[in-house]
Each structure stands twice: as C-alpha cells, then as structure tokens.
Amino acid sequence: MNQLFTDPPHALLIEPIVRRALQEDLGRAGDITSNLTVAADAKAAARLIARKAGAIAGLITAECAFRLIEPGLSFHYEAADGATVPAGKVLARIEGGARAVLTAERVALNFVGHLSGIATATRALVDAVSGTKTKIVCTRKTTPGLRVLEKYAVRCGGGFNHRFGLDDAVLIKDNHIIAAGGIRAAVERVRAGVAHMTKIEVEVDTLDQLEEALALGIDTILLDNMTPESLKKAVALARGRATLEASGNVTHSAVRAIAETGVDYISSGAITHSAPNLDVGLDF
Question: Can you give the residue range of the structural domain that contains 254?
Fold first, then answer.
C-alpha cells in the first residue's frame, strides 16, 4: 500500500457523510422494526465478517455509523484498512445495545462493502502491473458525495489518487482544446492565470498532439485511448520530458500490456464507478 497515505480521511470529513446516510435510512420515524421487536435494554455482540476474499477499506465508516447511534458502543478492529483478507475473516467485533447495532447495520455494511469493492478492484490492477514502474490512479468518476471515501479506498487497494476536484490541478481535455482554439492557445491562457504551484496536464489522442504538448513543456500528458503500440512510440518520443499517463480501455486483461509500454501512470475510472461490492456481513 502507498505508505504515505495509510491514515483514513479525517473524521470531520467522514462523519457528515455517514450521518447523512443514517438520516436517509432512519427517515422520520426511526428504525420502527428494531424498536418494536427488541427490548430497549437488550444487549448484542456482533461480528463484521468478510464473506469473500478481498482488500478492505472503510472500517472507520462502520465504526462511525455505530457510534453515531450509540456513542458508548464498543467497536474493536480485527483487521486494518488496506489488508487483503480471506473469506470468513472477522473484520471487527461490536458490543452494545441490540437496537443500536441493528439500526446502524445496513449503513455500516453498505459503506464497507462498497469501499472494499473499490479497494479490491484497485488491488487487482496493482498486482497485474507488479514489477513495472507504472502506478495505478483513479479519476473523478466517483459517486457524488462519496469522492473522499472512494479515493481513500483506492489508496487502500495500493493505488494512487489523481486530482480530487476541478480546483487542485489543471487538466486540459479535448473539449477544452476545441473551445480554446488549440493546445497552444489553451496552455497559454492557463499559464497566464494559474498559480505557480499548480500542475498542468494536457490530454492528447495522437502522436502529433503529443509532440505539440511536449514542445510546450507540459508537466503531464494524458495519452487517451492509445494502443500499446502507440503508447510505446509516445514513451520514446517523450524521452522523460513529461510524465505520461495512459487512460482508456483499462481492463484487467489489458493493463499489463499498457504498463509494459513504459508509461508512468495508468488511470482507471472503472475502479470507482464499476467495482463490484465486496460481500461483507454482520452476524450476532
């Protein structure tokens, strides 16, 4: 795992996201099923279990969900975010009021299953390019409202983060180029107004565009939907003058060939927008 980013997102970022999920679930009347079937003083001991093997992410969201319902509840970690676990592994043990555990259960499982699915999908790509210099990065193709958590899950899977939003880096894409009147015009306008600490990336889809971007001294160039053969030529043309990122058609079967072209990064939207949920359950 990327050791620079082993800590989860700050609680101040997590708590509002989990709180909104609980509010959505509880609605106007709360958990009427648990409140009517379970005695108010009933206690429960439960285990959070990975029912399939995978990489884990988001346990802190589960703890947050349970503690928002019952602040004094006991939540003991049996695994760490970023760990790859076998099926049947106990991830956490929870003890507290039975009503509280039941009320928070679904929200906790939704977060852990979804985020662990992202971590697992990321880990599969990271493992597939092992031994090359290429790093796997995510994109902004995230679930609205969950970006900070989904990008954290990518790190738990051994990947790296691309920009978090429109405000922390410049990425001049094809439509920007068309609207600006060309790569040079777009880059000149950016350089006239951007802060000196902000990196500039330009998306290209031909080798001619790559040569134009290289001549402008761009920091990073996104090679969009190029074949491995074209990517090899791009690496040879760049000669280390810019960081190269490959994007498009990044499947598990294709990612190794892309990495072996020598690109620095491979970006994948699928690891966040299409990752299967990892089956995680809660047993009393």
Answer: 128-273
